[in-house]
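Blinded run. Sample ID left blank on purpose so nobody reads anything into the name before looking at the predicted structure. Input follows.
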Amino acid sequence: YTKQVLSIISNAQSIDLLRELCRLTLQVPSSDLPTAEEVKGYNAEELNRFLKKRLNNIVKHIDTLTDQEVDGEAFLDLTPAGLKAYEIPLGPTSKIVKLINEIQRVLKGTADSVYLFIDNSNVYIQGKKETARREAVDEHLVQIDYGKLVETAQDGRHMGAVPVVVGSIPPPEDTIWAKLRNLGYSVTVFERNFLNREKEVDSEVSLRISDTIHDYMPGTVILIAGDGDYGPIFRRVLDKNWTIEIWFWTDGMDIDYPEYRTAIATRTTIINLDDFYKKFMYACGYNGISETKWLQIFTDLVEDSDIMKCYVELDLFGWWYRPKPDSLK
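Blinded prediction complete.
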């Protein structure tokens, strides 16, 4: 079975099937568990019903616990030795202990934390195009300050984990991946080709979000993307009582799922990147237009980050270049 799965994954033409496998994985309800405090409140009959829904192939042994008047609080205190005393075999014991451990698992993070994911496959390209159009600058001069992009989306809130960036190669400038890693971000890169152009990126982002909502207590998922089919993971995030922020270029996306309209209305925010582009987009290089007026500074002490900070504070689009190491225009 494992060899068959690996064969499917290695076949680029089967990437659609892999994507569906990822979606199915995201929809498995195995982690939809009550909290330990909720289970402690169960009486013996309520515990019986809960266990039979979760472990329906060991019904007889669940009834044994009910016969012994094991309620929710007593259930969470059960050990392998205690289950053995009830003459419950090793197999069912293992399943029961595993369920107890999952219920009592301590989630990391805090409710006010944010967890940021960047689907760079289109954010980079669309950002350059949109900025070039707005500022009448050559597209090849436009760059993204990823630190400022994250800072803008974070908006002073507590970052619960390292930002995650997923993209494809080759981008127009391969050096962006090294820059992102230097910022301390978690970076995953896939090769882009005509068969599986961006589907691996979508699936990887979805899986990383799924890992986060499983390991951390509900907070806010921030997704920065250009496009992509994130419906399955959005529904999963909402099911787990998380909040979603989606940052998109231009028209954004439609996430109007009828059965989730209430959750979407109260726990989902769509934000247009166009409204904030001056905070993280800039141009670097000479455009060759002689009529352009420049402010020239002769120094090698000013870093690009200092220049960008100045432009952001002035709410201006940043554009500069260095004719020489000690000259800045």
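Unblinding after everyone has recorded impressions. Confidence is low (pLDDT under 50) at residues 1-16, 22-31.
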